[in-house]
Amino acid sequence: MEAEALYREAFPDVARIIHAMGGTLEETKDVFHDAFIIFLEKKDTVPMRSPKAYLIGTAKILWLHNKQRISATELPQEVEDHVEDDHLEEEERSVVDYLQMAGEKCMQLLKAFYYDNNSMQKIATRFGFSTTRSATVQKYKCLEKIRTAIKKNETYAH
After folding, report:
1. CB neighbours (10 Å) of residue 24?
2. Where would you tag: which of 25, 50, 91, 158 has the fewest CB atoms within 10 A of its CB?
């Protein structure tokens, strides 16, 4: 299944699940994007019968971990004093943080493709690429930057 089609097919299901567990639309988007990046990172290395089920399950697990972190932020002050801030910041990085690390142009390109549903031809024209292939290669490079950053994050290491 093509990534864009999977994205469109799975997001409504994830939104329903997270809404049922008390999540907002913004929280759903954050969790889904994190799950989608994990899926993209793992799709060629992890055997899976149903990419959609894998993506939905990953999003649900991330949401549950996120809820646990929210509860953890309500710890008494004396417990919080013993937590290393750098460690929490690394764990709590969202997909937006990774997109920002990839750069503004990558953020805009990926947004144009995944959110605005622009064709690669339209993206090539908009961003000044000479061919559709050049735009596709740049999109791939942006995703690779994000994958590399995620792999460096111990939260996603398995």
Report:
1. 10
2. 158
Could you tell me how many residues make up the chain? Answer: 158
What's the pLDDT score for residue 60? 87
At position 66, the amino acid (one-letter code) is N
Calpha distance 76→82 (Å, rounded): 11
Are 109 and 86 spatial neighbours (Cβ–Cβ below 8 Å)? no
Position of tokens 């997270």?
18
Yes or no: say if 4 and 117 are a contact pair by the CB < 8 Å rule: yes
pLDDT at 53 over 50: yes
So what's the pLDDT on residue 125?
Answer: 94
